[in-house]
Amino acid sequence: MGRAVVAALLRASRVPPCKMAAAVRGAEELELLERLLGLPGGNKYGVQGERKVPVLQTNSGPGLTGLMTIAAHLVRQARKEQLLGSTAEEKAVVQQWLEYRVTRVNGGSSKEDTRTVLKDLNMHLEDKVYLAGSIFTLADILMYYGLHHIMVDLTVQEKEKYLNVSRWFNHIQHYPGVRQHLSDVVFIKNRLYTNAH
């Protein structure tokens, strides 16, 4: 289901704008993930309940509910299980960050919530390339999609304050196939230097 269709359905049902934006993002993120994974697309996404949880309508039984559940299903469908982690520890870390994404990034609504998320991530990424350490996973993909609307609105100074998040985010947005049609977030400010000889 396209972004415009989901938005129209939510407007018709008088959903508050913040929940509408989250629902549109959830459906859009799943469509972006489908394309990234090389799946043919055509899945029908909807939302359920007051929190507007994403739902995948399947042809062969009950729908799948929840961003994490649907995303993991798509990864398995694409036969790219390495994105869920290889070892038991990696799988647990990926699951941990996926839960964090759903509960803290999606659940947060205030500027203070956003600052807390960015501080948490900044500390975690201090000595890591990816959320699960040294491997690119589904957690990186969904966290990138979940933070994109936040990172776009940060000032250069705010991005510098969360340097590890900015480094990670910039790396993920340039990972092949991830960004797609999302806007490129700029992290460098141009400085003009005088030539003093």
Question: Could you characterize the architecture of this molecule?
Answer:
- With 197 residues, the chain is mostly helical.
- The chain has 8 helices and 3 strands.
- It has a 3-stranded antiparallel β-sheet.
- α4 runs parallel beside α6 and α6 packs across α8.
- It is globular, with a radius of gyration of 18 Å.
- 31% of the residues are buried.
- The N terminus is likely disordered.
Secondary structure class reads mainly alpha
Q: Order of strands in the sheet with the most strands? A: 1-2-3
* Major sheet attributes: 3 strands, antiparallel
How far apart, in Å, are the first and last alpha carbons?
61 Å
What's the total count of β strands?
A: 3
Residue runs with pLDDT of under 50 for 5 or more positions: 1-23
Question: What shape does the CA trace take?
Answer: globular
Strand percentage:
5-15%
Radius of gyration: 18 Å
Order of helices and strands: HHEEEHHHHHH
Number of continuous helical runs = 8
Chain-averaged pLDDT:
84
Helix content: 40-55%
